[in-house]
Design brief:
heterodimer; A: mainly alpha; globular; B: two-stranded antiparallel sheet; 2 strands
Chain lengths: 189, 201
């Protein structure tokens, strides 16, 4: 019996780890030490009072991007599915990651620090996986529905693959992509 | 001991089931390079990336592999025996040739500078005179027919599966599915049914 306990413990830890992630503290989404006018974490996106009415998320507090995006495939996938402008579960991310709005533009303030480098997605989304695109409801090319990836209003958005609050699986992926497991959660390949 | 074995088997089964994708599958097939020591344990990333794709090199499906810039020696010197022009390979061939012509390392993907080149039977080289013409238009008629595939698979022409469009590597080969030998889209050991998809013989 004693032999079993460590095994059970290890298995439990293994299975539970993705669910109880590391959290946002100390991750790249923790901007509390950046000198952006606040030592709080949540404030850059959320506020308990005086929030902006927004579809981006609860108690929204970050300035929104007003960009119009160049879409994957010019607005249509290889299978002929329409690619729309990003929905709220993408536009919230792009309000920093398209590079048009300062990271520290929150709570009504206009910031001065813009995203650079690999985390800059830009407003040209032609080189990015389509978002704002309806997830298939029939056929065999995709897993319907996916197990881990999420859809928003039936569409793939940034948050389909990314969990903004948990960096357990870099870069904020909803599961480890070892063996391309996250890709294969949707794509039957 | 018996108990341990059972536990081990159960865990192995769980992990295997958890990882196995549906369908014929990339995982474990020759195009699965995740275990080759090429700088990643992912499968898709050698050819595709969700962000910052190499669209400027090749505008196809979130392309992530360094793209060949070779100029090819063409079948029949650029003309088939029936007088049809053979063009330089299109993008649905260049995706393959970016490893299989031997000019670009297999592990040159994303920002990873590769060093391992294709060798052996799978190396096409830039001399395509000994290979079935690609970049060649199929016109339906007495000798040829448009095959039955489409965007979801099957033998097809590019960019769309219609008379007047091109035969490319991907016309016969389905890079993601090893159901048939050599990634063929049909079982050609069954009375050459792949060849006869286009050729009226």
């Amino acid at each position: 019996m004693r032999k079993w306990l460590p095994i059970a413990g290890a298995l439990t830890a293994c299975l539970l780890a993705p669910a109880f992630g590391a959290g946002i503290t100390g991750t790249k989404h923790d901007l509390s030490a950046k000198g952006y006018g606040s030592t709080e974490i949540c404030i850059f996106c959320h506020t308990p009072h005086g929030a902006t009415a927004s579809s981006f998320g609860p108690l929204w507090n970050h300035a929104a991007s007003s960009a119009t995006y160049q879409l994957y495939g010019g607005g249509v996938t290889g299978r002929g599915t329409t690619v729309n402008q990003p929905g709220p579960a993408s536009a919230s991310c792009l309000s920093c990651h398209d590079g048009t709005v300062a990271v520290d533009s929150y709570g009504g303030a206009t910031g001065t620090n813009f995203i650079t480098g690999n985390a800059l997605v830009g407003t040209d989304l032609r080189d990015d996986h389509p978002i704002g695109v309806a997830y298939p409801t029939t056929g065999t090319s995709y897993k319907i529905p996916p197990t881990v990836a999420k859809t928003y209003a039936g569409r793939v958005e940034c948050a389909s693959c990314h969990d903004v609050h948990d960096s357990t699986n870099t870069p904020f992926l909803r599961m480890s992509n070892s063996g391309s497991a996250l890709c294969l959660d949707c794509h039957n390949k | 001991m018996t108990r341990w074995l059972a536990t081990g088997a159960a865990v192995a089964a769980f992990l295997t089931l958890g990882l196995a994708p549906a369908g014929a599958g990339m995982a474990g097939a020759p195009h699965d390079l995740s275990g080759a020591g090429y700088g990643t344990d992912q499968i898709c990333i050698f050819c595709h990336t969700p962000h910052h794709s190499k669209i400027a090199q090749l505008d196809i499906k979130l392309w992530n592999h360094e793209t060949t810039t070779a100029t090819y020696q063409l079948y029949g010197g650029g003309t088939t025996s029936s007088g049809t022009t053979v063009n330089q390979p299109g993008k649905n061939s260049k995706v393959c040739l970016s490893c299989h012509d031997g000019s670009v390392a297999i592990d040159s993907y994303g920002a990873h500078a590769g060093t391992v080149f294709m060798t052996g039977d799978k190396l096409m080289s830039p001399d395509l005179r000994d290979d079935h013409p690609i970049g060649v238009v199929l016109t339906a008629g007495a000798k040829y027919q448009v095959p039955s595939g489409g965007v979801s698979g099957g033998v097809r022409l590019y960019p769309t599966n219609a008379s007047g469009n091109s035969v490319e590597c991907s016309s016969c080969h389905g890079v993601h599915s090893i159901t048939y030998a050599n990634y063929l889209k049909k079982d050609n050991s069954n009375k050459s049914q792949l060849c006869l998809s286009c050729h009226i013989k």
